[in-house]
Amino acid sequence: MDKKNTGSYYTPSYLASFISRRVLSHFENIDNISILEPSVGDGVFISELNEFENIDISLTALDINKLELSIASEKWLGNNGTFIDIDFLEYSNDDKFSAIIGNPPYIKKNRLSDNQIKLSKKIHFNENLSEASVKNIWATFIVKSNTLLNDDGVLAFVLPSELLQVEFAKEINEYLNNEFEKIEIFTFNELLFECKGQDTIVLFAYKRADDRGEFFANIESKEDLENNTFNLRRNNLLIDSNIKRTHHFLSNEELTFLEELKSKLNIVNDYTDSKPGIVTAANKFFIIDKEIEEEYNLSKYTKPIIQKGLFVNGSVVFNDVDFRKLEDKKNPTKLLQLNDSDKISKKLRTYLDIGEAELIPNRYKCKIRNNWYVIPNISIKPDAFFFKRSHLYPKLLKNNSSAFVTDSAYKVSTKNNYDLNSFIYSFYNTLTLVYSELNGRYYGGGVLELTPNEFKNLPIPYIEINESEFENFTERFENKDNIEDILQQNDFKILNTTLGMTNLDIKKLSVIRKKLINKRMRNN
pLDDT tens across 179-226, in order? Predict the structure, then answer.
């Protein structure tokens, strides 16, 4: 089955071994313990638990997949093992467990069944959590597991790094801190799964602990886990700040340095209005290339559009010449913009029939339109666009073309008579790019993403430049070898002018940025 639907990303044996050892060490003076694994999968944790012959483990293992449950049950060598074919959301048990361990599925709410959504809401509501916290099934596994632990219980899960990065997870983090006396978070320099899209962490949560609080460790290699050569440390400044916990490897001195600089600056939202680009609900159908446009005689219904940031690499200005180059490369660059009043030609009808055969009218955003093929909110072309996803560095471009942009970008326009050229120039400095790393979230493969609010809250050391300076900046940007060339040329002028930063301060800032980039880009 598709992993997006099953949420199954199986745990490497060395990680299952580490988790099992660490959990069982908490019960080293206890002969009998009960363990629940709520999504047993291929049974890798069972294989590791078999190694602990000196502890009498009563195991309960669940899985929604009968075949995998059967395979896992055959691996268990202990005397007390119960294997149940059930969705964990439906499971109930009067007895509490000493520990709950595993790697819960990662399934977004929109891929859950109606019954799973209903059960998830009930589980969250029973724990006084809001509906906003019901976004992914892994969060519900955390909440429900907590209710099944005894007073001295331990929860140990492999989880997506979303727990440390995304907005809805803040409520889950608060819940964890209220319910457990000690939290341990392990992050990794290597991606743990074969699926590049899943960046993972390990969470240990202890109901009772002598050493209370949140602790963090960054693991350089699997040998650190095997040999216990890692350093768990508190980072109270990080916890008290709005900086995401994924950046726990920054020192208190570095965090203080950054926050002091940020406190002196305005943010993107003070200088600009920004809104998501056009939501088509089906880019492959509504954004076509020139060949399709000609085949179905659609030119009078189309407008130029940029579909993704990948198409606009290497500059800070996008013009009509650049757009024609995209057309020449046969990229999809034509947005099908129809109105309710449009007369449907025979060829247009033929093209719309293709969309209906592909069930595009059944998609939620198409279904709520008056006519499924009429895309709303296509206004005037943007003055500039910021692409929400990036790789080497965030992309902010002035739009000198007639092109629109999809919701892969935010449409940007300046307000209060601020100069757009100056804003774009001021954006490209090390401090703003550092906060792009801090504010955003990253995925496997090194992709950085900023939500609308994360972009709006970036600090901007704004300075005014003239037209000639912007033209010079544009030329330098297009001829750069890498973004560091631009930062070295821009930093002193921007950061010394606005913040009085010295070259030594800027070097310190560059070291922090490199640390953040290396963390995000590992394995690439």
Answer: 999 999 999 877 655 444 567 899 999 999 999 999 999 998 889 998
- Phi, psi of 150, rounded to the nearest 5 degrees: -80, 180
Report the distance separating Cα 88 and Cα 40, nearest Å: 10
Q: Is 73 exposed, middle or buried (0-12, 13-18, 19+ CB in 10 A)?
A: middle
**What residue type is assigned to position 443 of the chain?**
Y
β-strand partners of 215: 184
How long, in residues, is the chain? 524
How far is C-alpha 385 from the chain's CA centre? 21
If one counts every other C-beta atom within 10 angstroms of the C-beta of residue 390, the result is 19
Total-model pTM: 0.83
DSSP codes joined into one string, 323-387: HHHHHHTT---EEE---TT----HHHHHHHHHHHHTTGGGSHHHHTSSSTT------SPPSEEEE
Closest CA to 365 of 450, 283, 274: 283
Contacts of 206 (CB under 8 A, 6+ apart): 26, 154, 180, 181, 182, 183, 184
Residue 291 and residue 330 in contact, taking contact as beta carbons nearer than 8 Å: yes
Contact 426, 495 (CB under 8 A): no
Taking the CA atoms of 134, 137, 139 and 144 in sequence, report the sign of the dihedral they define: positive
Residue located via tokens 């560095």: 393
The answer to whether 415 touches 273, Cβ cutoff 8 Å, is: yes
